[in-house]
Amino acid sequence: MIIIFGKFILFPILGALFGTSLPIVAVVSNSMEHNMDFETWWSENLEDYKEFEIEKSEFETYNLKNGFNKGDVIVLKGIEFEEINRGDIIVFQSKGHEPIIHRVIELREESVGTKGDNNSQQITFEKYIAKDEIIGKAIFKVPLLGWVKVIFMEVFGQI
Fold first, then answer.
1. Which of 31, 90, 139, 156 sits in a 20 to 30 Å window from 80, CA-based?
2. Closest among 155, 141, 138, 149 to 78, alpha carbons compared
3. Alpha helix (H) ranges present in the chain?
4. What is the value of pTM for the model shown?
5. Are 43 and 59 within 8 A, CB to CB?
């Protein structure tokens, strides 16, 4: 009953309010985790951002600069492609993949590139994300609330 309410009533209402087809996502991977304080994390990862000319002072201004964890829930809002900034965290769905939530590190006229904060480099499919693949932008996180989905997926497979 709760699943039916969420899928057919709550999600459509939240989607209309936030302007996206996917207003809430449960984080199911470790790709955005920072398992240490920001200073230590940056010193261990700064080389990964040099090629994109992202400095520590810029990264410190980003929303969710300390990343987020597997099991967190991220609330999204719809966003126009032209409003996306470097450092924004977006959810996108590239062909053949589940929705991915990563940070924008490259802006182009017709696409963006992202990277998981905890990944040492970009994954091939996230180097050129087209406008029509972008689902929404992260606005805040709710820690731990997504563990229900994570556990369900790990026990029963994809839902």
1. 31
2. 138
3. 2-5, 11-18, 38-50, 56-59, 147-156
4. 0.88
5. no
Domains and CATH numbers, the chain: 2-156 (2.10.109.10)
- Dist CA 94 CA 52 (whole Å): 22
158: burial class by Cβ within 10 Å (0-12, 13-18, 19+)?
Answer: exposed
- The pLDDT tens digits of the residues spanning 134-146 come to 999 999 999 988 7
In tens, the pLDDT along 5-28 reads 666 777 677 767 778 888 889 999
Q: Are 93 and 65 in contact (CB under 8 A)?
A: no
Are the CB atoms for 35 and 45 separated by under 8 Å?
no
Asked whether the beta carbons of 106 and 74 are under 8 A apart, the reply is no
